[in-house]
Amino acid sequence: LNPKVSPFQRRFVGEVRRCEDMEKTFTFLQQELRAAGRVPGPCPENPRAPAAREALRVQEQSEQLAQELREVTRNRASLRAHLRDLRQYLHVLREGQRFTSLPAPLGSPPRPRALSEREPILDPSLHHHLERKINFVAGVIHPWRVTAFERLLWRACRGYLVASFVEMPEPMEDPATGESITWVIFLISYWGEQIGQKIRKISDCFHCQAYPYPESEASRADTITRLHGEIQELSVTLEETEKYLAEVLDKVALALPTWRVQVQKMKAIYLVLNQCSFDVTEKCLIAEVWCPVQDLTQVQDALRQGSYQSGSSVECFVQRVPTSESPPTLIRTNKFTAGFQSIVDAYGVASYQEVNPAPYAIITFPFIFAIMFGDVGHGLLMFLFALWMVLYEDSPRLRQGTNEIWLTFFEGRYLILLMGAFSIYTGFIYNECFSKATTIFPSAWSVATMANHSSWSSAYLATHPSLTLDPNVTGVFRGPYPFGIDPIWSLATNHLNFLNSFKMKMSVVLGIVHMGFGVVLGVFNHVHFQQRHRLVLEFLPEMVFLLALFGYLVFLIFYKWIKFSAADSRVAPSILIHFIDMFLFTSNAENRPLYPGQVPVQMVLVVLALASVPVLLLGTPLYRWCRQRTPRTVRPGAPLATGEQEPLLEGQEAGNSVNATKEDVESGGHSPDAEHVDFTEIFMHQAIHTIEYCLG
Q: Nearest Cα to 241, choosing from 38, 84, 74, 30?
């Protein structure tokens, strides 16, 4: 009711912004829960929207928990990084000891000289000559970069170094990706300061983690001992940090679901209040709403209760306001009908007080699906799957799935249940279970009678892989199968010709009946809205077009079934050729007529069908145009048109709608331009309807 007011200038924009800030905090808390491998559970109850003081408390507690989580998470990350560095340094010193260990003291037994990667780099006899000239660079490198790193060192330093590489004994986390990898320890010994600068620059370029390497063995031993102590202390500190983080996450997981629901309700209320307008005194909010008459008492009770709980000095009240707007459509559904109503709404929501086709679709949609799908085995699997979802529909694990495809299946569980049940029925009609025929009753065809009548010999059977059963022979065909298709057709070589013809004709018959039923439903709309001209100008041409062409086709199908039997089936004409000749206004001498006078009858039907198209296209627009040109007198104080419903207005006197002009109210909601009709729009709408109907 205040469209001209900027969203940033509305009354409760500050409260909405506070709710959005809290939602950002909740999103951070939820991300931390998921990072810790926890899934926040559903809200255990249906909490009410919090009062202002309660909302401040929720905001304060959530921000405090978020701040604690940030600090603890940051401390844990720094402790982990420091612990990882200490462990890597410890492994570097341990592995370096094997390369640079001093020779054994005098008097000890000589060590065998075997070629090994663990042998000291320096020859013990030269150690005292070169001790002051050799320097070391030690650290760790990613295993993917080792080859390129070694090649570049050799080319840049021209061999004035000795590089040793060995894998770390245990895998560690990569700080960049978070993956666990096995790092490679390198120890480079070199001569000269310039070579050392090159080595350090190259190691920096390859993102190596370098560590100081003590020159003396005693210093290395002291460093290893010190690292052991630091690692032990740091592990204890990290364990305590993890415990405290788990406690904070427990608090978040307990409170977050309820907080989210409360803040969502609070935000929704303020968004609605921002759409209301103030009265002259700016002490009362005014809202115009549509409300079903059936729920009017509940709205009044809720307003009265809200006034009492808020302690307001002005009581909320409801007043009807006249209007010429078309009310929105409300269709009440339950868990069974919701899926079918969603399918109907996907094609278009019915206008106010129009016939709702969804109740009929509860039967027709699964049945027509089953005509296509019909199979006892597959239908039974579908039925059992849907029955499992129906029986356990109250299970939280099924209801709160995050997979969109699964939620689609779950919402349509009753639809799938009926589709499976009807598929079992049509599967028995087609006599198919996992595409195999079943012999529930004995076959009505007798092979033995045909064999006795034809006197098939062994030589005849050897030269004829296919045998023909003639229903004209007495005793070969003993009447229709009790239910569905005879199982002997599954063995016949011409079973596809028979089943395709049967299913195609059945589809035409059921499809035309279904379409005719849909057209008949429109009669109730025309009568209810007192648009009786549409019965003549729309319903009648539609039925003539449908029945004159495809209704006649259904008649031909049944007529041919009744007139011709197995005895004269070879001379039965083709319905398809007759139907083609019907549109061409011709006859075929080779295709005998089904009944005398068939060609004139078909010509008349085609002419009627073609003549109904311009009536359907131009009838309603011309009628509206003629009505517009005819002057009419309107009786003062006339009631509203049938089907109109008045909206409800909170906190306003009768007859003073915020969005209505004075003339609208005085004329009962009908402004002088209410009867103005855009004939271009009407004609375009009717043209689209005609093309859609005829093509359909």
A: 74
Q: Which domains does the chain have, with CATH numbers?
A: 35-101+132-252 (3.30.70.2750), 335-444+479-488 (no CATH), 493-629+677-695 (no CATH)
Residue 487 half-sphere exposure, CB side, CA atoms within 13 Å?
12
Return phi, psi of residue 385, to 5°: -60, -45
Q: Strand 318-320 and strand 285-289: pairing?
A: unpaired
Cα dihedral angle (340, 343, 346, 348), rounded to 10 degrees? -60
pLDDT tens digits, one per residue of 164-177: 888 888 888 887 77
Residue pair 339/478 in contact by the 8 Å Cβ criterion? no
Reported pTM: 0.67
Q: Do the Cβ atoms of 286 and 650 come closer than 8 Å?
A: yes
Question: Tokens 């729309």 sit at which residue?
Answer: 538
Q: Give the pLDDT band (50/70/90) at residue 375.
A: very high
Q: Where residue 313 falls among pLDDT bands split at 50, 70, 90?
A: confident
* pLDDT (tens digit per residue) in 249-298: 999 988 999 999 999 999 999 999 888 887 766 778 888 889 999 999 99
Beta bridge partners of 139: 186, 210
Neighbours of 672 (CB within 10 A): 9
Q: What is the pLDDT of residue 110?
A: 45
**pLDDT tens digits, residue range 208-234?**
988 888 877 888 888 888 989 999 999
CA angle 23, 24, 26 (to 5 degrees): 60
DSSP state of 325: S
Nearest by Cα to 242 from 505, 37, 99: 37
d(CA 101, CA 216): 9
Asked if 62 and 25 count as a contact pair (C-beta separation under 8 A), the reply is yes
Are the C-beta atoms of residues 414 and 382 closer than 8 Å to each other? no
